Amino acid sequence: MAGRFGPNDFAACARCGSGKVHPKLLVMGPIAGIDSDSRSYVCHECGHEGLPIFFDTAEARAQFEREKKGLWPAEPMSAKKSVLSIPILPIQTDPLIDIKILDLVPIRFASVTGVRWEGGRLQPTAYRASFKEYWDAIGGPRYNAARIFMLDLSGVNRANPNFDVTRHLVKRCDVWLDSGGREPEEVMDGYMLDVERVVAGSKTLRGVDAFAELYGLSSEVLPCLDWDGRVVWGDPREPQVELRDVARRLRSIGFPSLCVMNLRRLGTELGPDPALLAVLEGLDAELFVGGGVQETDVAALGERGFAGGLVDPYTPVIRDLMRPPKEQSTTEASAPAPGLVDPYTPVIRDLMRPPKEQSTTEASAPAPVPRPPPAPDAVPGPG
Questions:
Q1: What is the pLDDT of residues 141-198, one digit of tens each?
Q2: CB 72 within 8 A of CB 80
Q3: CA separation (Å) from 212 to 51, 200, 246, 286?
Q4: Is the confidence at residue 337, as pLDDT, over 70?
Q5: How many CA within 13 A on the CB side of residue 325?
Q6: Helices (H), the chain
Q7: How would you classify the pairing of strands 174-178 and 147-152?
Q8: Is 93 left (phi over 0), alpha (psi -120 to 50) or beta?
Q9: Residue 46 in contact with residue 17, Cβ under 8 Å?
């Protein structure tokens, strides 16, 4: 309803999105049916009481109502968002001796590792670099990452997130943070770090009901369904493990977007699993896919309707950016590159020829000239 709340206000019910929102009339006021409580409103469509949501235009209010009803009409091509490429950064934090040192050099206590799903947990691999070194590679002009998907391995694996370290790291860029919260209240602790989005991974939550509680606390939480052939839950007794069914359940709760992490491919750089993508296609949600994804896979995900890709750590592109520049010297240009050389090359054959014999007399004196023999009738002279 426009005009009742202000000249440019378009109010909508926070539950169903309807524009049929009116101040709740007092029935026991001095003039029944006329006096109203301006701090309380009622929706004549669903009966919800509470504060409405205001929009600047009627079109925006109508779109909000369609979204609440689960109607997601295709946006014009010019209005569609570009597909997002978001690097995954598994953060391994070392124990801190003196927290005061952290204020001076916080980055040295955090390293970015490779990661694989083994034995029911995220295991760091041999790849390891300081956060500063890794961020200099992906945050520079050649890679230009706008945001990152941060996995706090201490929180995910040991239920001990190191907020003292990560609160410094999130200042460098926009962060989607999975701190490994087991309970909805623990997940919400991530907002104390001023991150762009808090991620709730199914691998540490007890079940679907935990997501319903989270949505009651904040609709901005980003669910992440961890999948290894079935949805992985913190409580193995959770019966809902079919990926598509769980995704639909989250959508019915109200979450407009979610991530799906293929744990079997995480860190393998094998690309997205075609069978997994087929399962996810057609879901009316903003979907981000991770697990085996490289930078070159993201555009294809966008063409199939996905909102973005969560890129594996230490892809070949990132490793190449982290290599130190080659030192050039005068000797490098003359020395042959290492490799296998054919036998009996011209150089080798030349080296195998016997040396030429050189004589000093041949070079210094001409050959002697023979003298003619004496005549037979010559008589020698007197002595």
A1: 999 998 999 999 999 999 999 888 888 888 888 999 999 999 999 999 998 888 999 9
A2: no
A3: 22, 12, 12, 18
A4: no
A5: 3
A6: 58-68, 99-102, 131-138, 153-158, 163-169, 184-188, 208-217, 243-253, 274-280, 298-303, 316-322, 330-334, 346-352, 360-364
A7: parallel
A8: beta
A9: no
User: ∠109-114-117 over CA atoms, to 5°?
Assistant: 120
Least confident residue range of 7-16, 61-70, 73-82: 73-82
Domains defined along the chain, listed by start: 10-71 (no CATH), 84-322 (3.20.20.70)
Beta-strand relationship, 110-118 and 121-130:
antiparallel
pTM recorded for the entire structure: 0.64
13, 52 in Cβ contact below 8 A? yes
CA atoms of 369 and 367, how far apart (whole Å) = 7
Q: Answer positive or negative: Cα dihedral of 51, 57, 60, 66.
A: positive
Two tokens at 204?
């540490």
